[in-house]
Give the backbone structure.
Amino acid sequence: MTYDNVEHLSTRMKPKQQKLEMELTVDTTSSHYARSKGEQIALNVDHGSDQPFYKSDLMDKQVLSSTKNITSPSHYCVGILKDDELHLTPVAGVLQLRPTFGYLDTADSKASERSALGGADGAESSQDDEEEPLKLVNVKYSRPESEEAKTRRMASYNYLHKKNEEERWCQLKYHQIDDMMSDCERQKLFCVRPGEPIDMSAQPKEYLKMLIPESDVMEEEKPPMPSNVLSMNQLKIMSLNDQIKALLINSKVIQLQQLLSLLPSTSDPTAVLRSLQQVAMMVQGCWVIKSEVLHPADTMSSVTGVPSEALCKGRDFVMWKFTNSRYVVRKDIASVIKLPAEDVKDILEQMSVPKVHLGWEFRLEQDTDFLKRYPDVAQRQQMLWEAKLQQLTKVLKLQQKDKECLL
């Protein structure tokens, strides 16, 4: 179905969002048009409205709304042949227009409003003139918003939807395909000045790199992904140390063989293990990201706003408990680290799973193969945990029974 011969009523655009809408007439005289249904839709949408959307008491128009067809148009161009010459023009964006059915939402919302008002009127008529009794009202003061909480709020759907709605529409004038103005725009697709000659002796792959350098492509096409999602394309351009750090931040807990399977096949296991010890601590033969790497200095909890220093101490205590047992009890953990319940749960979910009647079990099975293959690394990690325990004893004031668990 085309809209070439359909009358255009209006066209508008939001430039920042690259959003386009077009209002087109609907042929109400067509044999395919259900007049009774059109009257019903118009009544539902415009009932009680001072500015009706449908002027003729019929659904006599429709709206086409755009969606972005491709997220990164830098790889695309429009080509046209003229006099044995190929003229290429870069594409800034591609929009696809589809019918939108916002009028159904409008009709539903108005129906809900009418039913709510009807219920309120009935309730008011049945009430006595007596005053309502006084009620106790609790007043809560909101905490100062942290930078991380602000970032999450600004990335939320409600915030982005509100910002998009605030952008004003710009009215445009539509020109048909055979209009003179349209023809003038098409003439801009032809290059009037010859450009620099291109060396066509290059191989196809080399010529492709000349057109689209790999480094530029990777920088431009990094998608805005959630913080808990890691792009493998981004991972490939990182150094080995950064790859290991990124994978640990994403997974929180991992075994050496799992890590090697995610890294390039050319990675040296010895170099990987050396870098791994810089960003992770060994727990039951597995590797858990260090607390100071996950919660850098001068940051705070994204859940409660607790400073990173307190988070690191509490998280280190949980990791230490898992070096001695497959299970920990959340109540016992909370009584020692003195963190809000939300942070305690978040720490436990990073490295364990809840088990009924048992507590929280360490997420991965003990990596006995690693402990047998690398006894020197296991011994070194044991010494690091002993030193860590001494620090935790002073900071968290651990009881003697907690320290004896390490023996």
User: Anything to note?
Assistant: The longest helix spans residues 102-126. The two ends are 77 Å apart (CA to CA). The longest strand covers residues 61-68.
